[in-house]
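Annotators were shown the component list below and the corresponding predicted structure, then asked to write short factual statements about the assembly.
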Amino acid sequence: MADDQDQAIPVQTVEEPLDLVRLSLDERIYVKMRTDRELRGRLHAYDQHLNMILGDVEETVTTSEIDEETYEEIFKTTKRTIPMLFVRGDGVILVSPPMRTAT
Amino acid sequence: MKIVDGMVEGTRGRGGRRISWVKNVKDSTGMKISECCEILLERERCICGTLHSVDQFLNIKLTDINVTDPEKYPHMLSVKTCFIRGSVVRYVQLPADECDTQLLQDATRKEAAQNKQR
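Structure shown to annotators:
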């Protein structure tokens, strides 16, 4: 290993899943959370538990309600924005790299 | 024989309409589903405070705490400091202007590289 360990930015290689997350650092990512929550924000930090720090986060909470007569599910979404957010990793379902489609 | 010609107490009769889970919830709680959901959401709370310490499990000690929406949780008004078990935390909202994002990203890259060497 000729690489200096104190090198500011290590060589970018993809060998394991978390490397993909590393490539998303400083990019906007999509995070699906348990209890029907979704986050979109800029990834600033993460660790092996997928604890994350996101900036300029938009949180979308989806709640469902069942119509009493038709038994149809009605979905309601509420959104809020948070400038800087630490997310505990145990609630994370999926992390998706920067989206190219506008949402 | 009972199964063939009768019905078990509490279940629908043969050919009867299915009883939905929603109805069961309504019968046992006496509330609408939407009210149950609200109660579920009300269990979540936000606590604002000064971060005193954090340990390896991300247990958090806060001082000078305020509960947002004190009308809902009057019992929290008298509490000045608290200890939160890390596992029940979903989010921590941080003051954005005090976060050095460049430092965070560099530290994350460094840590990722170190984890790989092990």
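Statements collected:
1. The longest strand of chain B covers residues 47-54.
2. Chain B has one domain: 26-117.
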